[in-house]
């Protein structure tokens, strides 16, 4: 199975900060990667698919980039509602696998 | 607006069978993949498997010997069975709709609608 390694595992940031989370795949997954946000007690929410395509309704401060094995999610201008855990998900092959998550906390 | 409503037994004893069902409201059942994902307490997400409307399945090899996903298209429902559960199967189980979107002639996968989750505890 393809392993996805996210870094950092957690970070502290302030409202208004620019935050970048990275996701590294154990093999080339082209551009078959998405990002999900999960808040405590809630189901995950789709943010981005195909590396950089924003899901409808997701604020434009979220952006994604990368290809092959290295990917990133950037939040430009962190908002209070963005404090959550973020997961990458590869759909290059089965089994679908998630990164271990990155928790974004308030500084 | 598509919604997924899930239900099933929340407390199991070791060796019993976990059984959950997810119903689809407000949208089409065909043309999508219907997924089960789980999350142990305080940990990350694990994909369990998926089924499409015609009954074709894909499972995570780590669970394949114990898992079965089935579909009832007449009711727009899909179900998960996981047998011989242990404490390691404790967690929140989510159902989710998956689909392919075409971007510049390539298909990309997404999971855009999720159930609220069912907490399953395995304890003697």
List keywords for this structure.
heterodimer; A: 107 residues; mainly beta; 7-stranded mixed sheet; 4-stranded antiparallel sheet; 0% helix; B: 124 residues
Textual characterization of the structure:
The complex is a heterodimer of chains A (107) and B (124). Chain A is mainly β. Chain A has no helices and eleven strands. In chain A, the strands form two sheets. In chain A, strands 2, 4, 5, 6, 9, 10 and 11 form a seven-stranded mixed β-sheet that branches. A four-stranded antiparallel β-sheet of chain A has the order 1-3-8-7, with no helix packed on it. In chain A, strand 7 and strand 8 form a beta hairpin. In chain B, the strands form two sheets. In chain B, strands 2, 4, 5, 6, 9, 10 and 11 form a seven-stranded mixed β-sheet that branches. Chain B is mainly beta. In chain B, a hairpin with a 4-residue loop joins strand 5 (46-52) and strand 6 (57-59). Helix content of chain B is 0%, strand content 58%. Chains A and B meet through strand 4, strand 5 and strand 10 of A and strand 5, strand 9 and strand 10 of B.
């Amino acid at each position: 199975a393809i392993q996805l390694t996210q870094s950092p595992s957690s970070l502290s940031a302030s409202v208004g900060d620019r935050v970048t989370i990275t996701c590294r795949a154990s093999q080339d997954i082209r551009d078959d990667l998405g990002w999900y946000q999960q808040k405590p007690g809630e189901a995950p929410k789709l943010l981005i698919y195909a590396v950089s395509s924003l899901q409808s309704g997701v604020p434009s401060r979220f952006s994604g980039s990368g290809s092959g094995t290295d990917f990133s999610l950037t939040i430009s201008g962190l908002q209070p509602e963005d404090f959550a855990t973020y997961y990458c998900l590869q759909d290059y092959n089965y089994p679908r696998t998630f990164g271990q998550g990155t928790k974004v906390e308030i500084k | 607006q598509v919604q997924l409503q899930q239900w099933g037994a929340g407390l199991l004893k070791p060796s019993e069978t976990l059984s959950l069902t997810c119903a689809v409201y407000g949208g089409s059942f065909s043309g999508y993949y219907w997924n089960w994902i789980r999350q142990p307490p305080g940990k990350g997400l694990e994909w369990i498997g998926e089924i499409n409307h015609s009954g074709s399945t894909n499972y995570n090899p780590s669970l394949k010997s114990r898992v079965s996903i089935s579909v009832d298209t007449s009711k727009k429902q899909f179900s998960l069975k996981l047998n011989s559960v242990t404490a390691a199967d404790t967690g929140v189980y989510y159902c989710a709709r998956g689909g392919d979107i075409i971007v510049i002639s390539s298909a990309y996968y997404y999971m855009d609608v999720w159930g609220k989750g069912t907490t399953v505890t395995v304890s003697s």
